[in-house]
Amino acid sequence: MRVALAACVAALLIAVAGIPLSGQENTGYLKLKVNPGRAGVFIDGKYVGPAANFRIGRKYAVAAGEHEVRLTEPRYEDVVVKVTIEPGKTTTLSQTMKPLPAPQPPFGRLRTPSPDKYAAVYVNEKLYGPCR
């Protein structure tokens, strides 16, 4: 009886292993190697976090197809790249951003208190980082 039960369980596992999980057949992954790592990453206009989050150990699940990736950091020129994500595969984007000229004085301060410490701060439509 135990042998028959084990055989049934094994057959069921083999049958289920061939069935793709919902949504996985049209999903790929994006890894980033960006300098500087603190650059903000936008995929199709949606902020997904700093570039350092997508290095060696992490990747971002993205629907298969062509996507626009924008990298932004206040002290560097923005980078906009089109990437094609293939289902079930990982696409790696390597980019070194070009520094902007050093700002000239006078300088000011902007305080942005917020209960959401991850809220994005924009000045003149440019991302300057999270609230602090």
List keywords for this structure.
four-stranded antiparallel β-sheet; disordered N terminus; 132 residues; mainly beta; Immunoglobulin-like
Which value, in Å, is the CA radius of gyration?
22 Å
What is the CATH architecture annotation? Sandwich
Task: Give the DSSP E fraction (strand runs of 2 or more residues).
Answer: 35-45%
Annotation field: number of helices:
1
CATH superfamily: Carboxypeptidase-like, regulatory domain
CATH class: Mainly Beta
Main sheet overview:
4 strands, antiparallel
What are the low-pLDDT stretches, counting only 5+ consecutive residues below 50?
3-22
General description of the model:
The chain has one helix and nine strands; from the N terminus they run αβββββββββ. By secondary structure, the protein is mainly beta. It has one domain: Immunoglobulin-like. The strands form three sheets. The protein has a four-stranded antiparallel β-sheet, with no helix packed on it. A three-stranded mixed β-sheet has the order 4-1-7, with no helix packed on it. A hairpin with a 2-residue loop joins strand 8 and strand 9. The longest helix has 16 residues. The chain starts with a helix and ends with a strand.
What is the structure about, briefly put?
The chain has 132 residues and is mainly β. It is 12% helix and 40% strand.
SSE layout and pairings?
Elements: H1 2-17, E1 27-35, E2 40-43, E3 46-50, E4 60-63, E5 65-72, E6 79-85, E7 90-96, E8 120-123, E9 126-130
Parallel strand pairs: 1-7
Antiparallel strand pairs: 1-4, 2-3, 2-5, 5-6, 8-9
